[in-house]
Amino acid sequence: xxxxxxxxxxxxxxxxxxxxxxxxxxxxxxxxxxxxxxxxxxxxxxxxxxxxxxxxxxxxxxxxxxxxxxxxxxxxxxxxxxxxxxxxxxxxxxxxxxxxxxxxxxxxxxxxxxxxxxxxxxxxxxxxxxxxxxxxxxxxxxxxxxxxxxxxxxxxxxxxxxxxxxxxxxxxxxxxxxxxxxxxxxxxxxxxxxxxxxxxxxxxxxxxxxxxxxxxxxxxxxxxxxxxxxxxxxxxxxxxxxxxxxxxxxxxxxxxxxxxxxxxxxxxxxxxxxxxxxxxxxxxxxxxxxxxxxxxxxxxxxxxxxxxxxxxxxxxxxxxxxxxxxxxxxxxxxxxxxxxxxxxxxxxxxxxxxxxxxxxxxxxxxxxxxxxxxxxxxxxxxxxxxxxxxxxxxxxxxxxxxxxxxxxxxxxxxxxxxxxxxxxxxxxxxxxxxxxxxxxxxxxx
Length: 445
Ligand code: SDX
Fold this sequence. Notes:
Citrate Synthase, domain 1; single chain; mainly alpha; 2 domains; binds s-citryldethia Coenzyme A
């Protein structure tokens, strides 16, 4: 017969009834039953520690590789409904923001939690615009990279280096100081991106032109040559701005949880964001847009698709740009990216890779392997095709992702810093190594 323990609810009813919002667990090793409170659809992992076999037992933990079912934070920045394929930023549907808001407006929303009034947006725009320049020594540092350095490696390193230029960034409890760093980082990421690109192609770095829009200025710093004034192509400028909106934030993805993790040790936001960008670089995450383009080029024609799908099902390769930890339906961002493609192609000409991508999607979505694994196109599947059509080299794709994600990283970092629940991130482990043993002298090995 299981013996009852005192329910873990705040108010102990005293009666032998168990509060509704609890989980009753019986430890069959001891016959004891525990009632754990359920809050926000979860139980607190620490409540499991009381489940022991003996008083000196450590107690139960959860084992969750990749954190597939573990909430490490409470957040209000963005919400994803993976089953329905819904994404909202601060409650606003991504479709409406992509259609009606500029990237800087969305960046304001992510950071401040509310849409800006016109005066607030004008001031925000001014603050960002006046921080686009990099210290000349940062430029010198970037010039030290190998001639063909991958721009994402340059981006990660340069963001970290900014930490040495802004020592005041360590005043994390000063709201004004935090906002100053947030504005600096949002403002400078396009400049870092463009300088990394110009370094790689051996052209002189093009300085910001603050008469242009945020996105127009990036295009200016990347593509301007000898013309006195750069005129961004309006369709491409708008398409890129929407792509930045779509990448703004996305819950506790790998790079955001890296940002929060490093931020939890109270490192400054530049170091935290360098860690986030490093995580994003991986081909399973933000580097997927680059990997998709290489995959489509490797497939080469629609006639080769069946053979490639076969290799995917044999687990020899992955279908890059497909699948998601959270979305078990079509990534809503991918739908919007697909629509943008047509607008861009009207200006740039059709990128033939789109035909391979569309046929790959058609075949995959009819195939039992992809249906049973709930694998759908994610944000990275089509974005690279557009970036390539717009003239960006494939190595710049993850850097473009990083520019779009910067306000989300910073909003999440600040939310983590202000969350009284939060402590330094320090997961536990299940140790399966050797038992304690004595050192063996060299001659006896
Ligand atoms: C982003 O988290 C975010 O929100 C990320 C992101 C954001 O905005 O921050 O949305 C941006 O990173 C999008 C994802 C970009 N990555 C890719 O497109 C790379 C290809 N996709 C995957 O490698 C994979 O789908 C992940 C990394 C996205 C998700 O990995 P999970 O959730 O850990 O899934 P898994 O690797 O455990 O796979 C589960 C099963 C496996 O098969 P079984 O062993 O169970 O039979 O699905 C298979 C996998 O083999 N699978 C794939 C696949 N993705 C998963 N099989 C073929 N091709 C794929 N792409």
